[in-house]
Design goal:
There is one protein chain. With 128 residues, the chain is an alpha+beta fold. It has 2 domains: 1-31 and 75-128, no CATH class; 33-69, no CATH class. Helices cover 43% and strands 12% of the residues. The protein is built from 6 helices and 3 strands, in the order αααβββααα. β2 and β3 (67-69) form a beta hairpin. α4 (85-94) packs antiparallel against α5 and α5 crosses α6 (109-124). It is elongated and about 45 Å long.
């Protein structure tokens, strides 16, 4: 029965991930700085640093008074275990099933499923 289940898994290969480099995307998101960061809520460039939370720089908008971090309004927002993202992206490139990728990264299969859909959103965005 396991062979049937794996046969039903979507084939995630380089075609799905395409040639866009997910690892570079993740690095770019983390490297973005407040000087050229626009507010995801109102697109204002009047932002300033507002502390650090979960090893991510937070910002606050002077226009709408809302706070955000570099992952706000991205497919990676609210995902945990950031240290495993790059390893998981490599599993997607290898075309591993959800369960095999989860085992390799040390995450639950439900987390693996959620991440797969989020990472596919990254790939489908035109801003990359």
């Amino acid at each position: 029965m396991k062979s049937n289940e794996s046969a039903k898994q979507p084939n995630v290969t380089n075609e799905t991930i395409k040639e866009q480099d997910l690892i570079n995307y993740v690095a770019d998101v983390f490297d973005s700085v407040g000087n050229n960061k626009a507010c995801p809520h109102c697109n204002s460039m009047s932002v300033f640093k507002w502390g650090i939370r979960n090893n991510l720089q937070r910002y606050k908008c002077k226009t709408c008074n809302k706070s955000f971090n570099t992952l706000t309004a991205t497919p990676l927002a609210n995902l945990r275990k950031k240290e495993s993202w790059i390893k998981y992206a490599e599993c997607l490139r290898e075309g591993l099933s959800i369960r095999k990728a989860a085992a390799k990264c040390g995450i639950h299969r439900n987390t693996s499923h959620r991440w797969r859909h989020r990472f596919r959103k990254i790939n489908s965005e035109e801003t990359i």
